[in-house]
Amino acid sequence: MENKGRILIVEDEKSMREVLKILLEEEGYETASAPEGLEAIEKLQQDIFDIVITDINMPKADGFEVLRKVKEMSPSTMVIMITAFGTAESTIEAMKLGAYDYIHKPFKIDEIRLIVGKAIEKKRLSEELDLLREKIGTRYRLENIIGKSPKMQELFRLIPKIAQSSSTVLITGESGCGKELVAAAMHNLSPRKQRNFVTINCATFPEGLLESELFGHVRGAFTGAVYNKEGLFEIADKGTIFLDEIAEMPSSLQSKLLRVIENGTFRRVGGITDIRVDARVLSATNKSLPDVIAAGSFREDLFYRLNVIPLHLPPLRERTEDIPLLLEHFLRKYASDTRRFSPEALRLLIKYPWKGNVRELENMVERTVLLSDREVIIPDDLPDEVFRAASPVSPLPDIGDAGVELEKIMEEIEKGYLLKSLSIANGVKMDAAKLLNLSFRSFRHRLHKYGIK
What we know:
Elements: E1 6-10, H1 14-26, E2 30-34, H2 37-46, E3 51-55, H3 63-73, E4 78-83, H4 88-96, E5 101-104, H5 109-137, H6 150-163, E6 169-172, H7 179-188, E7 197-201, H8 207-215, H9 232-235, E8 240-244, H10 251-263, E9 265-266, E10 275-276, E11 280-285, H11 289-294, H12 300-306, E12 309-312, H13 323-334, E13 340-341, H14 343-351, H15 357-371, E14 376-377, H16 384-390, H17 406-424, H18 429-435, H19 440-450
Parallel strand pairs: 1-2, 1-3, 3-4, 4-5, 6-11, 6-12, 7-8, 8-11, 13-14
Antiparallel strand pairs: 9-10
């Protein structure tokens, strides 16, 4: 039976403790118990629970003290109070301190089932909302994967197949290719799609903080650890965790990651108990992990565990036939359906090397449509670096043993100056012809010769 959640039962009456334990375990919950408040607080310091069910009247530390400690150490844990001597004042006090609900003895079994089920559901929804807020705060570069090139079509064929597996996947490719987008697509097409998709960039956290983010910590584990914290692996249980920039993971954490992949267990920072999870691990890097291994910065055994299914994303310069589709997509996103790039501008954009790949292309479109008022975007509207890098005018090539095609080179130079003059003249042919000291008739003839609209 699937573990629905972890519950701590705090009750000084042994018979009541046993009844609750049997009932909840039959419902699929994992339980722990404590006969009084101080022992419960000790358990809370070492572990995290989804729900705490606590009696109010207990020796050493009462239910209100347990409630205060829960909210201090693990604010997301839901607390249900139980008492045989409840008053309106105690009910109000419990709610003020953050209790989820308040039950009077004697209670019905169905009542416990219903309240616990609703508490778990509320906690899960709260966690999903937190993740959604985190995703909204991080701007996704693409809303979906776009491409008609053979390499992208092969990717579209592979992703649904890979998604059905629970094997680890190592996604490689240059920065800006959309590795996180591919990971998200695999999760959304997988049997795990109803559970969490959790992402973390290993390069953005210092070593100590990264360990806490991945595996969580217990209260007092280090300075500033004022309450127990779940790690991302726990949040990703039954779902997917995506480790971006995996090559940047410190060596000291690589063995712990290897243990999670091999055994499905880990310990929180400062913790003494093993925690079991079932999270599919997807990772990505823009580096060659074999080279990082050779440099002594990455474990070879971890590489083989991560690289069960390798998936490589091609850079944009190797799939230039996708550029017009991507431009159209980003124009709709940042402008309107009527905005478009002129053939001359499109030609320059296709020739540009796009070292930042799709991310750089999107940024260029967003900036260009913001700064240009023209319905048809011409070369003059493009960033200078795009025009300079894509311009056909270049230094004289070397003359090798095979020689050069002089006429072709001269045609490229002439075409480059025609495009540049049109850009400077905002597309007005008469003014462009004057810039090149050509008659309008001669200028128009050259445009026709090179097919420049």
